[in-house]
Amino acid sequence: MEKFPMTLAGYQKLEEDLKKLKNEERPAVIQAIAEARAHGDLSENAEYHAAKERQGWIESQILELEDKYNRAEVIDVAKLDGDSVKFGATVTLIDEDTEEEKVWQIVGDLEADVKQRRISISSPIARALIGKSVGDSVEVQAPGGARAYEIEKVVYK
């Protein structure tokens, strides 16, 4: 069974999502099925069929999240330090062409969220940054062409 890295915050979020599905969503859909059954003929009961479909989706989500939860390798980023880039690092980059500053945290694949400034460990930017240190220049092959960045700061929080 292959393990995959995950920050403590990502693991806790996964745990919350799993609890919500099991303790709120599952009982709610069971209640909806019971109410739809009470309406009579199930063959033409759209509410019943919709609730059964929802139940199938919830059960598949629970199985998927349980698998991810059990295979997660939790890394407590707060216990890491140094000026080289590793999993969990929050890296401040300066675009060498535009002087624009970008800040990214390198997280597991399941936690990646560009809007939250969190990139996957398997992304091109993260792969280029791993092992580099403050002051190093890195070149990243992006869809729009190669981009050069200088690592300004590395923080573990």
TrEMBL record:
A GO BP entry: DNA-templated transcription elongation
Highest taxon listed in the record's lineage: Bacteria
Ranges of residues in domain Transcription elongation factor GreA/GreB C-terminal: 82-155
Keywords in alphabetical order: DNA-binding, Elongation factor, Protein biosynthesis, Transcription, Transcription regulation
InterPro entries per the UniProt record, alphabetical: GreA/GreB_C_sf (IPR036953), TF_GreA/GreB_CS (IPR018151), Tscrpt_elong_fac_GreA (IPR006359), Tscrpt_elong_fac_GreA/B (IPR028624), Tscrpt_elong_fac_GreA/B_C (IPR001437), Tscrpt_elong_fac_GreA/B_fam (IPR023459), Tscrpt_elong_fac_GreA/B_N (IPR022691), Tscrpt_elong_fac_GreA/B_N_sf (IPR036805)
Residue ranges occupied by any Transcription elongation factor GreA/GreB N-terminal domain in the UniProt entry: 5-74
Purpose: Necessary for efficient RNA polymerase transcription elongation past template-encoded arresting sites. The arresting sites in DNA have the property of trapping a certain fraction of elongating RNA polymerases that pass through, resulting in locked ternary complexes. Cleavage of the nascent transcript by cleavage factors such as GreA or GreB allows the resumption of elongation from the new 3'terminus. GreA releases sequences of 2 to 3 nucleotides.
PANTHER family the UniProt entry points to: TRANSCRIPTION ELONGATION FACTOR GREA
Protein name: Transcription elongation factor GreA
Organism lineage: Bacteria, Pseudomonadati, Pseudomonadota, Alphaproteobacteria, Parvularculales
